[in-house]
Design a protein that fits this description.
Strand content: 35-45%
Helix content: under 10%
Oligomer: single chain
Structural class: mainly beta
Shape: globular
Number of helices: 6
Radius of gyration: 21 Å
Number of strands: 35
Largest sheet: 8 strands, mixed
Distance between the termini: 53 Å
Length: 512
């Protein structure tokens, strides 16, 4: 069955009877069943499977709103040939469609929960009312429908939607409750950029997954996974292993989402070519930046342009940097677990591996990129009237995930932020592991890292930022509207197991 096919004709009740709740089924698999049979490197059968492209869903305009109908249901997918695993999908057995909308229009999303457990759907990167955010407070009970509505305020870019269930985000996203969102706008439309979906404008959801010895999807639920995050040993792009894309154009736009639960990636091209970064989380940069590699943490996105005019095949390759400074055997010893050796659920990928093989149709004229992409306002930290400090920390041996010494409590509002007020948020990492820090309801600008100018990918708008061990990153932001004195937004680590274990806080946006 095509994992991107519309699931409207599937008997959801039968699937639930066969698979049970997908996330719960994954958690029940024993860690001991996972032995050394899976390959980190995609050498065998490289480029064997055509890249799956998520179905494009543009919704239907009804009474002045663009309406999307989304159904969360249990599904089944073969992560290894001939072996079926329980999954979760949105209008599909696994993952979901790409939602396309335009800046300035109003959207409504009818989300039906066909699981036998609660679920949420968070619109990652959007500025919107707290009641529509899709965080842990917007629980959709089994059999219920949630219908948020909001104006699309975002600049054109790649965003995404995914589970944000309280203490259950990790297993639900891992099972497949995640998918892209495209926002379009007039500013980007005016540029001569590749924009034909599925032809020269391709979303890439990069995820790592762990299979047990039988080939079934495994979600380890143990102290090691909680501390390090769940990291698999096989790479899937849009749910495809050993993926290949047959390009028909000389300039290819890749919108890359790190949709993994915990794994960081350093991306590059196989023949060492430069790639042009044109956008970060929240939209276009001021100009293209030629780079040979770029790093993405979970939740981060980028957009790159690849020149295929020579007609030579190439690959998008990656390594997975160790972000744990040796914790729990992550790099052969260190402060925790020294001499323990590597765990199978913390498989390292420090040798280059192919994420996607790209086969051009032939040579073509080279396209000239516009020298200017977007007009961004000058970064002016003097606008800030207040500085808030957030310290990320994690205790020893599985306890103490915290921000500012406090673990997530659904009944505690940690910060109250006046609407329209420019602030500096200082994010400090007191732990020995890098964390991607995500703020809901905001697109911020990066001022500096330990006083240093940020790299090209961080010169535009961001909603998720890497904070390395013993590092401090300063952000400039404000919340422009959507006040609610009681209903909060989240800020948290986007290593999903850290979020589930308590590295998350809550804030409300209040009237001045």
């Amino acid at each position: 069955m095509d994992q991107w096919a519309n699931a409207s004709g599937i008997n959801r009740r039968a699937l639930l009877r066969r698979a049970g709740t997908a996330a719960a089924g994954l958690m029940a698999l024993p860690l001991s069943a996972c032995e050394a049979r899976n390959s980190l490197l995609n050498a065998d059968g490289a480029g064997a499977n055509p890249l799956a492209i998520p179905k494009l869903d543009q919704g239907i305009v009804e009474q002045g709103e663009r309406v999307f109908r989304l159904s969360i249901s249990a599904g089944r997918k073969e992560f290894a040939p001939g072996v079926v695993s329980p999954t979760i999908g949105v209008n599909a057995p696994y993952l979901g469609p790409t939602l396309e909308m335009r800046r300035g229009e109003r959207v409504r999303l009818h989300v039906d929960n066909g699981l036998d457990e609660g679920a949420t759907v968070h619109w990652h990167g959007f500025e919107l009312p707290a009641a529509a955010d899709g965080g842990p407070h917007q629980l959709i009970r089994p059999g219920a429908r949630w219908s948020p509505s909001f104006e699309v305020r975002q600049r054109a870019s790649l965003y995404w939607y995914h589970s944000h269930l309280h203490r259950g985000t990790g297993p639900q996203v891992y099972a497949g409750l995640a998918a892209p969102i495209y926002v379009r706008d007039d500013e980007e439309d005016a540029l001569d950029l590749p924009s034909e979906y599925g032809v020269d404008d391709i979303p890439l959801i990069v995820q790592d997954r762990l299979l047990d010895n039988s080939g079934k999807l495994l979600y380890p639920h143990n102290m090691h996974a909680q501390m390090m995050g769940v990291r698999g040993d096989r790479i899937y792009v849009n749910g495809t292993h050993n993926a290949v894309f047959d390009a028909r154009t000389g300039l290819l736009r890749l919108r890359i989402l790190n949709g993994s639960n915990a794994r960081f990636y350093d991306f590059s091209l196989s023949r060492g070519q430069t790639m042009q970064i044109i956008a970060s989380d929240g939209g276009l940069l001021e100009r293209p930046h030629a780079v040979r590699s770029l790093r993405l943490a979970p939740g981060e996105r980028t957009q790159i342009l690849i020149d295929l005019s020579e007609g030579r095949p190439l690959s998008l390759v990656a390594t997975s940097p160790d972000n744990s400074m040796g914790m729990m055997g992550g790099d052969g010893g260190g402060m925790m677990g020294g001499g323990m050796g590597r765990r199978r659920d913390d498989a390292r990928m420090d040798e280059p591996f192919r994420a996607l093989d790209i086969r051009p149709a032939g040579s073509s004229p080279r396209r000239i990129l516009p020298p200017q992409l977007a007009a961004l306002p000058a970064l002016n930290p003097s606008l800030a009237v207040r500085t808030r400090r957030f310290v990320l920390d994690m205790g020893m041996m599985g306890g103490g995930m915290s921000i500012n010494g406090a673990s997530m409590d659904m009944n505690v509002i940690n910060e109250r932020v006046p609407v329209g007020q420019w602030e500096i948020w200082e994010i400090a990492n007191a732990s020995m592991m890098a964390h991607p820090f995500h703020i809901h309801n905001a697109q911020f600008r990066v001022i500096d890292r330990n006083g240093r100018t940020p790299p090209p990918l961080e010169t535009g708008y961001k909603d998720t930022i890497i904070v390395d061990p013993r590092e401090q990153v300063r952000l400039l932001l404000r919340f422009e509207e959507h006040t609610d004195p009681d209903l909060p937004y989240m800020y948290h680590c986007h290593i999903l197991e850290h979020e589930d274990a308590g590295m998350m806080g809550q804030f409300v946006v209040a009237k001045s």
